[in-house]
Specification:
- It is built from 15 helices and eleven strands.
- The chain is globular, with a radius of gyration of 21 Å.
- It is about 40% helix and about 10% strand.
- By secondary structure, it is of the alpha/beta class.
- It has a domain of about 260 residues: Amidase signature (AS) enzymes, CATH 3.90.1300.
- The structure holds glutamine.
- Glutamine binds next to loops.
Length: about 500
């Protein structure tokens, strides 16, 4: 009997189409897998009854020849995606009991394509973090921790913010999951859990109904166990939406047709500025190995320069908190979620926001409010916006010389829960390789490349031109083929 939870999304679709198993079989196997992996603390809300209803409807569609492109595929949704009638918390106390009356465009597209939703998965509150530890719902555990994660005395983080999405896909509790990516949240957790993570071009996927963190950087993303599976997810999630004024009206190509194509003659750039001081030797070695794999597959590897790289992290940590402070002003205890009463209106605001937001979110609101305040706006926010343009110009120039850029995804392998937490800067450094392409609005995909000496996965990311995801899929699929990463975490469903 096939292990239904261990199939790729691509093979699961083939099996469903060939009627080797039904959507109900598929869903039941995944509901059991979700239960078996509860020790990872990945789900905030499980929706097994809803999943079974959707699966029954999916089987009926298939029986009458009306199945859609992703019919019967069980997935998990990051809890930043508003789901009609299903609690959506943003992993925050302030939205603990928020039940949206509408569905996000991206989750609606997945439902329309026939996907089954297993539930809502955890992440850092509002997407703020790189380890999935910043949430009142508790840290998520990386299935690479060990065969019995609960008993381990050094539980590893799955990365963040989309740590729940990464953990369930790696642990075989969902065939795929949505993430979001504001500064690396779909790519860095993928790297730390040995799976594929992608952020498309800004404007490719609708942000409608995705709870906002930093609107000019936020973009829906996904996590899967192969590049071909990612092509299927992205093909479904992408597309213009008139409900999001920043979504862009360009046709979405069939990404699956890029899988397995030759990359002969493709030019891959290695940015020299990414060889930062103190770059972990194993990460560097993996990066060079990845470059030679692409060379073996027929690509030409050249050096490129992104001179403003060193400003990316400081610029991100001005712009993201600035936008967050404005976006999060709406949680005032009046219209949404939790309210903590006070003697007057102001103290009600203070009590609500003090109790509803955890420490990291309050820190970002303070930083954001500061950099936007009169007298500091020009010095920080405006300056950061100018440097942001320089960062984009760097990429535009580099991507004239090459078709895609190859870089490490994360500066290290998965670390222990509680580590890097005393000093926020330590945690912010996790994003050193990922934030620049959010600032530039470009697409990126992280592919697992191998295991480090400590037995934990390492990933590399490919960065492409705006709306040229096809080239990324080609290069990523070639890299995946050469890397032959077939490792599974020691703990799976
Ligand atoms: N780790 C980054 C942050 O804390 C990025 C998070 C994200 O992409 N949502 O802001």
């Amino acid at each position: 009997m096939t292990n239904l939870t261990d199939l790729s999304l691509t093979d699961a679709l083939k099996g469903l189409e060939a009627k080797q198993f039904s959507a109900v079989d598929m869903t039941k196997a995944h509901i059991a897998a979700v239960e078996k992996t509860r020790c990872l603390n990945a789900f905030i809300t499980e929706t097994p009854e809803l999943a079974l209803q959707q699966a029954t409807a999916s089987d009926a569609r298939r029986a009458s020849g009306k199945a859609s492109v992703m019919d019967g595929i069980p997935i998990a949704l990051k809890d930043l995606y508003c789901t009609k009638g299903v609690r959506t918390t943003a992993a925050s106390k302030i939205l603990e009991n928020f039940v949206p009356t509408y569905e996000s465009t991206v989750s609606q597209k997945l439902l329309d394509a026939g996907c089954i939703t297993l539930g809502k998965v955890s992440h850092d509150e509002f997407g703020m973090g790189a380890a999935n530890v910043n949430t009142p719902f508790g840290a998520v555990i990386n299935p690479w921790t060990g065969a019995d994660p609960e008993k381990s005395n050094r539980k590893l983080v799955p990365g963040g913010s989309s740590g729940g999405s990464a953990a369930v896909v790696a642990a075989r509790a969902a065939l795929a999951a949505t993430g979001t990516d504001t500064g690396g949240s779909s790519r860095q957790p993928a790297a730390l859990t040995g799976i594929v993570g992608m952020k498309p071009t800004y404007g490719r996927c609708s942000r409608f109904g995705v709870i906002a963190f930093a609107s000019s950087l936020d973009q829906p993303g996904a996590m899967t166990r192969s590049v071909a599976d990612m092509a299927l997810m992205m093909r479904t999630m992408s597309g213009f939406d008139e409900k999001d004024s920043t979504s862009v009206d360009v046709a979405v190509p069939d990404y699956t047709s890029a899988i397995g194509n030759s990359i002969k003659g493709m030019k891959i750039g290695l940015p020299k500025e990414y060889r930062i001081d103190g770059l972990n030797a194993e990460v560097d070695a993996a990066w060079q190995k990845g470059a030679s794999m692409l060379r073996d597959a027929g690509a030409e590897v050249i050096e490129v320069s992104l001179p403003h790289t060193k400003y990316a992290l400081p610029v991100y940590y001005i712009i993201a908190p600035a936008e967050a402070s404005s976006n999060l002003a709406r949680y005032d205890g009046v219209r949404f979620g939790v309210r903590v009463p006070g003697e007057n209106l102001n103290s009600m605001y203070e009590n609500t926001r003090g109790a509803g937001f955890s420490k990291e979110v309050r820190r970002r609101i303070l930083i954001g409010t500061y950099v936007l305040s009169a007298g500091y706006y020009d010095a920080y926010y405006l300056k950061a916006q100018k440097v942001r343009r320089c960062i984009r110009n760097d990429f535009d120039a580099a991507l004239k010389k090459c078709d895609a850029i190859l870089a490490p995804t994360a500066p290290s392998t998965a670390f222990g829960i509680g580590e890097k937490q005393d000093d926020p800067i330590q945690m912010y450094l996790e994003d050193v390789f990922t934030v620049s392409l959010n600032l530039a609005g470009l697409p990126g995909i992280s592919v697992p490349i191998g295991l480090a000496e400590n037995g934990l996965p390492l990933g590399l990311q490919l960065i492409g031109r705006a709306f040229d995801e096809m080239t990324l899929f080609k290069a990523a699929s070639a890299l995946e083929k050469e890397a032959k990463f077939t490792h599974k975490p020691p703990f799976t469903a």
